[in-house]
């Protein structure tokens, strides 16, 4: 029964409660302010999915970024600790990979026994009580992971990672880590008396690491279903005296129903008897929070509960601090939870103009602890990691097959072939969808990718892929592919045969919704009206601009199934593409598209981004259309694959005008 919720709403309110050591007023959480003599407030704080983002700096763009950084989250930790009489700090995994600093440590510097990784330097400053593993801990191999984790001054727990094959009984598994730990936490109750609460932490990671990192784990490890492991070990924790059991679940929230070896199993993990609270992660989302979780039975995104138990997911890259506040009450010799609140507290907000405003400053001790590695990472991202045999530019990405889009598709196909090789989709035909991001528009006449042939550095990848999307794949039919391309072709105005210098580009259509699909060949017939408008609404049901759509040299079978690799935005329904939504998703990757491009470049050494000319406009003799792009595109106009382009003079606002001969 709630003690305060009815008459004292507290989900986002804090009460004046006392004096700090400096004499300044401290705003205490109501549980600390009102706890009785047999009650105590315990605040549990979470970081998750840090991905080596220790400072507010985007190494890809090579500039500061106020939306990320453990040094910012750390300032919340200090403040949040002062709001509670008793507190503990945990991390929920995905520490070691995900930013160029992680790649620098793995690929350039390396981790020998005795070395201390910058992640551990930062975390040791903050005094974590416990942590678990995420799937990305394995990206650089087991030796790297163990050498890094050896520097942690806090325990790591994981109940579903074994050294070999699974035992018949989960409790007989030969685990790499302790499945759980029970910490004797000294706490002060409402009267100021010191007590001991036995707080148990148990950790879990997605079983899918055996697919995602098969090259590092095959023959060396195995994973068990999350809920199965929990049902085996939580009773042991209670038998060993745990007053409360906290699940550290590097696993998201999925309401589709329990299934074996479920990736995002936190909702059903919360239903395991004996678990009192659950920290989640992996999905890079925020819980409690609006909309995302609507309609998931058992999840309350307002109160912040899963199966009625307090839960939180604290975003990613340090964007939020996760909080679960527990009001504990002594019940004989043990303690029980009698009330709770949960919250994900952000490190920034956006003003009315959508400008990012930082809510906290850096914690100087974190900045100092990782300064050397930060400077080394800056040098690393500015140093070539591979070569490109042809220039990478996006000046003509909207009017012809383009090298800046081609390299993204090449990398996505390289990645998805590995990810699907042990799945039932391994033999399905693979396609790749990618869109140009830097294509002028509101960004101005210099807002284009322009990387010369030769050395290519990690920071150049931000030119190729602006957004921190993650890789996903959808299963669609040939008809879906055709509609997908027809939706993309809505970026063009209709052009009448014989027209002279007709306007080509519809400026209200976002370029990031103009997908090129590699693996098929096709023509775009501009004499046809657009089948869909920019919102995905069918406006000309009898029209189709996509002609001669072929797969492997033959007309595409509209009923054949294809796996299309794309990003989470498009796969989740972003852009309102007909038939493309979350119900079609068959693969959710653990990696960002930018990371995949970097890995591809490192793997290949020298990349060939030359456009393969898999699409062009259908010929319209005697017809021309005009468009604007950056004036620096003049150097490439005569080299565009599959299109005849002429200089047509100056455009508006510093742009150049070009003529397309159809």
Strand content: 25-35%
Structural class: alpha+beta
Spans of 5+ residues with little confidence (pLDDT < 50)? 1-24
The percentage helix is 10-25%
Taken together, the total number of domains comes to: 2
Overall geometric form: elongated
Biggest beta sheet summary = 8 strands, mixed
Rg on CA atoms, Å: 27 Å
Describe the 3D structure.
With 662 residues, this protein is of the alpha+beta class. The protein folds into two domains: 36-377, Metallo-dependent phosphatases (Purple Acid Phosphatase, chain A, domain 2); 384-500 and 509-620, 5'-Nucleotidase, C-terminal domain (5'-nucleotidase,  domain 2), CATH 3.90.780.10. The strands form eleven sheets. Strands 9, 10, 12, 13, 14, 15, 16 and 17 form an eight-stranded mixed beta sheet that branches. A five-stranded mixed beta sheet has the order 7-6-3-18-19. β9 (180-188) and β10 (194-204) form a beta hairpin. The longest helix is centred in the middle third of the chain and has 17 residues, at 403-419. The model is unreliable at 1-24 (pLDDT under 50).
Core attributes:
662 residues, alpha+beta, Purple Acid Phosphatase, chain A, domain 2, 5'-nucleotidase,  domain 2, 2 domains, eight-stranded mixed β-sheet, five-stranded mixed β-sheet, 39 strands, elongated, disordered N terminus
């Amino acid at each position: 029964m709630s003690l305060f919720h009815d008459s004292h709403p507290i989900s986002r309110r804090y009460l004046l409660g006392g004096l700090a050591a400096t004499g300044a007023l401290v705003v205490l959480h109501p549980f600390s302010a009102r706890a009785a003599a047999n009650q105590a407030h315990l605040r549990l704080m979470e970081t998750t999915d840090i991905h080596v983002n220790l400072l507010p700096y985007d190494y890809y763009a090579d500039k500061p970024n106020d939306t990320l950084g453990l040094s910012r989250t750390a300032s919340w930790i200090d403040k949040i600790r002062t709001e509670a009489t008793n507190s503990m700090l945990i991390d929920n995994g995905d520490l070691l990979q995900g930013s160029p600093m992680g790649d620098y440590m793995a690929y350039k510097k390396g981790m020998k026994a005795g070395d201390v990784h910058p992640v551990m330097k930062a975390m040791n400053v903050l005094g974590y009580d416990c942590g678990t593993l995420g799937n990305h801990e394995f990206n650089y191999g087991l030796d790297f992971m163990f050498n890094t984790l050896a520097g942690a001054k806090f325990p790591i727990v994981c109940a579903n990672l074994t050294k070999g094959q699974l035992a018949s009984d989960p409790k007989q598994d030969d685990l790499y880590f302790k499945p759980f730990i029970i910490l004797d936490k000294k706490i002060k109750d409402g009267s100021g008396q010191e007590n001991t609460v036995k707080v148990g932490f148990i950790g879990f990671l997605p079983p899918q690491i055996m697919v995602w990192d098969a090259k590092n784990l095959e023959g060396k490890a195995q994973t068990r279903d999350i809920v199965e492991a929990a049902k085996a070990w939580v009773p042991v924790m209670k038998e060993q005296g745990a007053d409360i059991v906290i699940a550290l679940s590097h696993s998201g929230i999925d309401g589709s129903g329990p299934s074996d070896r479920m990736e995002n199993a936190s909702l059903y993990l919360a239903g395991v008897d004996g678990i009192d609270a659950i920290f989640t992660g992996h999905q890079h989302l925020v819980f409690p929070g609006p909309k995302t979780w609507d309609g998931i039975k058992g999840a309350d995104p307002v109160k912040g509960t899963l199966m009625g138990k307090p839960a939180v997911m604290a975003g990613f890259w340090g964007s939020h601090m996760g909080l679960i506040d527990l009001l504990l009450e002594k019940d004989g010799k043990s303690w029980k939870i009698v009330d709770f609140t949960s919250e994900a507290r952000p490190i920034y907000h956006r003003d009315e103009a959508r400008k990012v405003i930082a809510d906290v400053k850096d914690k100087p001790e974190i900045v100092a602890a990782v300064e050397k590695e930060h400077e080394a990472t800056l040098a690393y991202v500015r140093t070539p990691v591979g070569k490109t045999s042809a220039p990478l530019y996006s000046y003509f990405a909207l009017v012809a097959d383009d090298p800046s889009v081609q390299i993204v598709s090449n990398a996505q196909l390289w990645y998805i072939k590995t990810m699907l090789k042990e799945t039932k989709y391994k033999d399905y035909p693979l396609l790749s969808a990618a869109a140009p991001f830097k294509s002028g528009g509101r960004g101005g006449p210099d807002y284009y990718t322009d990387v010369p042939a030769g050395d290519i550095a990690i920071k150049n990848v931000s030119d190729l892929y602006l957004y921190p999307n993650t890789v996903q794949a959808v299963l669609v039919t040939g008809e879906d592919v055709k509609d997908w391309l027809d939706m993309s072709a809505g970026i063009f105005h209709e052009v009448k045969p014989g027209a002279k210098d007709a306007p080509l580009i519809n400026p209200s259509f976002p370029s990031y919704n103009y997908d090129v699909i590699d693996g098929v060949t096709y023509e775009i017939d501009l004499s046809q009206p657009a089948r869909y408008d920019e919102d995905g609404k069918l406006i000309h049901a009898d029209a189709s601009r996509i002609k001669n759509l072929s797969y492997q040299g033959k007309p595409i079978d509209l009923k054949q199934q294809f796996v299309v690799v794309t990003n989470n935005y498009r796969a989740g329904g972003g852009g309102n593409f007909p038939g493309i939504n979350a119900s079609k998703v068959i693969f959710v990757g653990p990696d960002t598209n930018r990371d995949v491009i970097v890995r591809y470049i490192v793997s290949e050494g020298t990349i060939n981004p030359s456009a393969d000319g898999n699409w062009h406009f259908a010929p319209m003799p005697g017809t021309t259309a005009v468009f604007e792009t950056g004036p620096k595109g003049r150097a490439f106009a005569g080299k565009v694959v599959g299109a005849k382009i002429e200089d047509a003079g100056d455009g508006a606002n510093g742009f150049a005008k070009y003529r397309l001969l159809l």
